[in-house]
Amino acid sequence: VRMALGARRGDVLAWVDADGLRLTAMSRVVGLAAAMLVAPALAAYLVGLPPLDVTAFTGASVLLAGVAALASYVPARRAAAVDPLVALRSD
Questions:
Q1: How many Å apart are CA 39 and CA 90, to the nearest integer?
Q2: 74 C-beta neighbours (distance < 10 Å), count
Q3: Among 11, 18, 27, residue whose Cα is nearest residue 65
Q4: Neighbours of 7 (CB within 10 A)
Q5: Residue 39 has what pLDDT?
Q6: Least enclosed by CB within 10 Å: which of 35, 73, 77, 86?
Q7: What string of DSSP letters covers 20-85?
């Protein structure tokens, strides 16, 4: 619909991608806070790692952010590639 109203393909791509990345950022904050609260209770299961290992938390967070960015980009690219007339006719 946005493209039918004059939005460019790059604008739609940025809009859909930014929406997904915003959700990812909020999820990372909540997930890191929860992991830091639970980590001391799981210290017995962490072999060779301190419960609050900054490298492990950072690595996991960056890896999940990369996967989420890819998972957000693919649908954004598809949404930007849809012909506006086809999208309007389907509704």
A1: 49
A2: 12
A3: 27
A4: 16
A5: 87
A6: 86
A7: HHHHHHHHHHHHHHHHHHHGGGGGGG-TTS-TT-HHHHHHHHHHHHHHHHHHHHHHHHHHHHS-HH
| Type of residue numbered 32 | L
The single-letter code of the amino acid at 57 is F
Helix (H, G, I), strand (E, B) or coil at 62: helix
**pTM, rounded to two decimals:** 0.69
Residue 23 corresponds to which tokens in the numbers above?
């959700």
Of the candidates 38, 67, 60, the one whose C-alpha atom is nearest the C-alpha of residue 51 is: 38
Cα 61 from chain centroid (whole Å) = 11
Q: State the Cα–Cα distance between residues 87 and 4, nearest whole angstrom.
A: 9
Structure tokens of 84? 């506006």
Instruction: Tell how far CA 74 is from the center of its chain.
Output: 11
Per-residue pLDDT 10s for the chain (91 aa) are 666 667 788 888 888 888 888 999 999 999 999 999 998 888 888 788 888 888 988 999 999 999 998 988 888 888 778 777 777 777 5
